[in-house]
Amino acid sequence: MQDKEIYISKLQEQDPDKIADLYAEANSCTENVCGNKVFLRGLVEFSNVCEKDCYYCGVRRSRFQGIKRYTMSAEEIIQCALFAHKEKYGSIVLQSGEVSSKPRIDFVARIIEKIIESTNGELRVVLSIGELPREAYAVLKRAGVSRYLLRIETSNEQLYKQLHPANHSFQRRMQALKDLKDLGYQVGTGVMIGLPGQTLEDLVEDLFFFRDIDIDMIGMGPYLPDKNTPLGQRQQDYNDEQRLTLSFKMVALARLMLRDVNIAATTAMGTLHPRGKEIALTAGANVIMPQITPKQYHHNYRIYDNKVNIALKSMHLDKINKQIAWGEYGDPKHFVKRTT
Ligand code: 5AD
Questions:
Q1: Alpha helices of the chain — where are they, by DSSP H?
Q2: What was the pLDDT predicted at 1?
């Protein structure tokens, strides 16, 4: 069998024992390569204002019902960073909808400088604010950002077109990922799993894509249909259980294929299963991103309906033989290797 067929057959596997074996194999790979530490990234969802209109996303620009648009103040964002620093999270992720104007980039750059200064550089700052011009990525890098998360969403260009309006470009997204890498960022990407029209072959191609672009970090999770979006109203090809199992299998296969990257146990997994993130951590993941956004904003950062944010306190990592890496940056080993 060719590689591709072997991977497809793993995604098709229905035998619970064989699935458990796959997770166990991935877990021992994680432990051999990265140890049993879980890295923390405090997640601040600082604005839901967005210029884009992605068909799957609950904060797309043309959604008006049921959400209020907000942008946190610089002071509020910095307070979150100080909290993450005090709690020894090691890294903070600033995430928002996409806004590419110069004043917005300057606003973010100033906040980053302030965060780095007021935490003595003891906190890695990570951005997840979408597709921006190369020059904006350069400005943000100079301000002190270490990592950038930008999902490709799907590596199948045809499927990408079906998920986005005509003015959103797959090639542009690819260019953004290249720019980030050129500029020296630790780069993360990922996909949604169980989209309408997505095949198991597409998912295997996603894994090859991660390998071929030599990515440092991966964040992926089940697609969650939201009734307020065009894609959520379409006929679905997968149910929640299928999407969740496929997501765990994708984490395991990504670990076995890529070995030294960081892989996140994501919010969408925790939304579909109360122990979803723990399961991912025993199937190849080694990063969690506890949400530290102030409570008053949670309701409006609705990328999808019924989003569940699992508190760090309620996760029992000792039961799965993992330890939190308090105060560590947790840079991906893959990045260290490819840049030294
Ligand atoms: N279901 C799951 N993930 C989603 N995202 C956006 N909308 C959805 C949804 N309906 C993910 C995208 C984006 C990230 C911030 O959230 O992959 O990159």
A1: 3-12, 16-34, 74-86, 102-118, 134-143, 157-163, 170-182, 200-212, 240-258, 267-272, 276-281, 295-298, 333-339
A2: 65
